[in-house]
Amino acid sequence: MLKFITLFFLFLHWIYWIEKAKETNLKKPKSNNMSFWQLLEKLLIRFTGTVVTFQLVGLNIFNFSAGRIVSYFGFTLFLIGLLISVIARKEIDTNWTGGYEYQIKKYHSLVTTGIYRYIRHPIYLGLLCIALGVELVVQSYLFLFVFLFFFWFYYWGKREEKLLSEHFGKEYELYVKRTKMFIPYIF
User: Which residue, among 26, 161, 159, has the nearest Cα to 100 in the 3D structure?
Assistant: First the structure.
């Protein structure tokens, strides 16, 4: 039952993300086309989402059995990730682009309020919590691979920070000095 509840919330999250992306692209269109590598990154994200979905509907991949406490902990982590990512997506509004898109949009503004007041990449943090939470809900050893996504998101974050620093200059550098990348006051 917990798997289906998780799937339901994941589906709502996905619908929200699609609708916000449509709205964003209407208000602030993307400034460039995707390269081959960006397309590859996008496909990898989609593949990962498909695997997670299949796991929630019953596909067992590298499963272990640790009892309900692990599943409930995973579900809690999943909900925290949903909340973080939705709040962050709402606050970044039309300045959002997918991490694989890597671009500054026309009329791009720097968001430093709300959750962005404390961390620079809350969407990545939320997505990591979602992925880790789902893998714990389904009790799959794939939860270990979620930590590889941390390095991928770290790379995306650093790449974005370089771009934002070039675009916003000193304003962005001051923002970086007073915030953390993923975890407030820590990292």
Answer: 159
Residue 167 lies in a domain: yes
- Residue 110 sits in a domain whose CATH number is 1.20.120.1630
- Alpha-carbon gap, residue 23 to 92, rounded angstroms: 13
**Of 73, 119, 68, which Cα lies nearest the Cα of 92?**
119
The answer to whether 95 and 111 have CB atoms below 8 angstroms apart is yes
**In a domain? residue 103:** yes
Quote the number of domains for the chain: 1
pLDDT per position as a tens digit, 125-147? 999 999 999 999 999 999 998 88
Band the pLDDT of 28: cuts 50, 70, 90.
confident
**Residue 148 and residue 178: Cα distance in Å, rounded?**
27
Over residues 95-121, the pLDDT tens digits come to 998 877 778 888 889 999 999 999 999
Enter the pTM of the model: 0.91
In a domain, 96, yes or no: yes
What range does the domain containing 98 cover? Answer: 2-178
